[in-house]
Amino acid sequence: MRLLPDSPLLLCVVLVFTAIPSEQDSSGVLGTSQSQAGGSNALPAAGCPRSCGNLTFDYPFGIGSNCSRSPAFSLTCDSTTQTPRLYFEDDSITEVVAYGSTWLQISLSQAIPIMHGGVVSTYNMSWKSSGSGFTLFYANLNITGCDFDIYQLQDRHASSVKLCTVTCPDAGITDKVARQNCNGTGCCSVNLDVLEAFQLQFVLRSHGRARLGTHTSRSSLWDSINVTSTDAEILWSIVDQPTCASAMDDSANYACVSNHSNCYDGLGGRLDLGYICRCDGGYRGNPYVPNGCSRDKGYNPKEQKENCQRSCGNISVPFPFGLEEGCFARRLFQLNCTNTASSSLQFDDEHQVTRIHINEGLVDIKYTPLYEQEMFRVYVSNEPGLYIGSGESSSVQWAVANLTCHEAMQNKSGYACVSISSTCLGVNSTDDYIGYRCKCLHGFQGNPYIHNGCQALPINGESTKKQNLLLGIVIGLSSGIGILLLGLCATVLLRKWKRDIKKQQRKKYFQKNKGLLLEQLISSDENASEKTKIFTLEDLEKATNNFDPTRIIGHGGHGMVYKGILSDQRVVAIKRSKNIEEGEISQFINEVAILSQINHRNIVKLFGCCLETEVPLLVYDFISNGSLFEILHSSSSSGFSLSWDDCLRIAAEAAGALYYLHSAASVSIFHRDVKSSNILLDSNYTAKVSDFGASRLVPIDQTHVVTNIQGTFGYLDPEYYHTGQLNDKSDVYSFGVVLVELLLRREPIITSETGSKQNLSNYFLWEMKTRPTKEIVATQVCEEATEEEINSIASLAEMCLRLNSGERPTMKQVEMNLQLLRTKRSNSCHVVQDNAEEIQPLLCTGAESRYETFSITLGGSSNAESQYSQRFNSLEHDFKSSLGTPH
């Protein structure tokens, strides 16, 4: 079974079914209200059980008195069955089948008896969450029975939505047969997700009631309505305080009590869903108990069982891997021999092992036929990620523990390299350090993970060496000339063969990456032919000195970026992405064709692409002064900082670029990764919005698209994170975080005085409620900006950061507001200059050069004042009209 990973999103809900039919309103009620508002236990009592059968769980859940944080987290173990089962206390309906640090996988079942004779025609089933911190994430329900319609009631019974109909054309159909397809014949499937409460209504069909008495051989499906879950998950958070900031103020009840733990606002930063605790990076365990977070201690270098089976067919399974309990070093190394005759050795349903290379730290794998080749992942609950591999390779690297060699050797009882002739090596991925592995020393071979596992290689005698040397000399002298000639010929042929192979490979990639499609798009568009260029791989190799690592200027989640110089002396940035799915190639080509036509002074220009590599390369204009993030958050020793006028100008330029993408381009483009590190600054410190690796094109007639969640924590729109629906207001939220960065000069993820981490946006919104804005912003901002300007930008940021996207402004409104502030500031600077030139530099530092163009627009000095007033009043009127406010 493939297990789910722990995730900071996940919460938990208690579900209870009861069914009591009556003549007026027969119902099966699901759920009991058990509030978390009551007293909570900061720590569990000693000796509390932490398992039920094969299932283990951690505090804040518990079995027994004073073993859970609050009654809502109280569990009970039913040991009367052959395999003990875990339930919520006082709830025999909702069984817990899998546990994660913030989620529970559950199984639900309930039967509602049908009253024969047509007395009752309507049956109800209701559910509501057990507390304010509990949410039903999703539930897939199979509903079996005969001849009734299923509705979901909404708005307190004021309306209902029909979900499906169950019919029984064959009166003798069995429950097993009905559930095989569950397509409406005897069984109907219903999907529910992210609900705090719901009610289902089952209405018997009239012809079904008439047929009920005519079939003496009818099945048991006619006697009851059975509701069972095929897959369901419940999610939880701590809700004694609304956010991490307020929770840390209540130290007596603060849940994140372990060292090396951090607090995170629940469900994407929403202020009303409490918080969750997680161990720091590199630490694992339970953050809700003292010293619960620790470095990886999951490796056990000793076999707990004798005579372990060490093969599956013709595949050897050496320690630390194993097939049986007690035969492997950690749960992550447990393998399953499904068929000895065919040597079928598997990690899970997706990945099959073909060979284990102990000394090289590699495992050869292949994908089972039911699954497509993708990024290699094996999830095991409470185990770190120690495998590194991708669908591009059949070999996967692995580490034995998420520790450095120095850390591992400090714990002799848990150190994996137990063979005397072995050594420790670090294992790194392209992004991070993974852990350590063991290897036999040079001149030794074998298994370094078992005692005396590394054995010395055999050494040849002196006579053998002399014989081989003499034989080599004789052969060399007799055939030297012939070999030399053959070598020269072979070299020439080999070079030609390699050139042909490379040429064919590049041609293959060009066709695979839809190069012909892009050429057709270019030839059919007059503008595109002038702007878009399809570069050859040779062009870009020359530009980057064969992709010299010293040319790397950046890397991130989407790939590497190289600095290059084209043959026409243009300096460019060449982006080499990590991967792209086969089915996304056509969409990628269309995006290249459209993005290449974007011509905006504040958007990094896309010159073209190269399609002769496995993953296409993108060629952008090179921006010389780095990113806004680097300048805002670099150390003061750099000697350079942006003035308030620069910040307003850069914010307005970036907002204008995003407005252009949303509304002015031929096809709407949602950036999806707006952040200060994606706002680059050229030689004149003009803003250039960059990095469209996560962007999505949207037809004009669509307001949103549903996508896999992508973005950067600290900037990610909570509503998009929660629903998966991307719209233009998702970029507005992220831009609001950038405005807060400009005001506070702090990074999007900050560390409080207590050492916990939280989103800058949450900190800003919380502090805005308790302190004057001028006390929150950076010292430099207070010195250079007026209080009115600070309050205006803070108010605009607050509007952008609203949880409901419908309450946020558009990027057009954001840009207009910023331009109004710049216009007001420019005018005030000119007025000060006219009346008191000697103090103007103090009030408008660096502003004069920024507004030179504006002064020209105003015309001569004689009528500058009146022209300014007309333009300012027009802009202010347009902005207020767009917001729907009186003016």
Description:
The protein is of the alpha+beta class and 887 residues long. Among the domains are: 244-294, no CATH class; 311-456, no CATH class; 515-621, Phosphorylase Kinase, domain 1 (2-Layer Sandwich), CATH 3.30.200; 628-883, Transferase(Phosphotransferase) domain 1 (Transferase(Phosphotransferase), domain 1), CATH 1.10.510. Helices cover 29% and strands 25% of the residues. The strands form 14 sheets. Strands 5, 6, 7, 8, 9, 10, 12, 15 and 17 form a nine-stranded mixed β-sheet that branches. It has a six-stranded mixed β-sheet with strand order 1-2-11-16-13-14. It has a six-stranded antiparallel β-sheet with strand order 24-25-26-27-29-28, with no helix packed on it. Helix 7 (515-523) packs parallel to helix 10, helix 12 (644-664) packs antiparallel against helix 14 (728-744) and helix 14 (728-744) runs antiparallel to helix 17. The longest helix is centred in the middle third of the chain and has 51 residues, at 462-512. It is globular, with a radius of gyration of 33 Å. The relative contact order is 0.05.
Short overview:
The protein has 887 residues and is of the alpha+beta class.
Which key features would you list for this structure?
887 residues, alpha+beta, Phosphorylase Kinase, domain 1, nine-stranded mixed sheet, six-stranded mixed sheet, 47 strands, 29% helix, globular, disordered C terminus, glycoprotein, transmembrane, Kinase-like_dom_sf, ATP binding
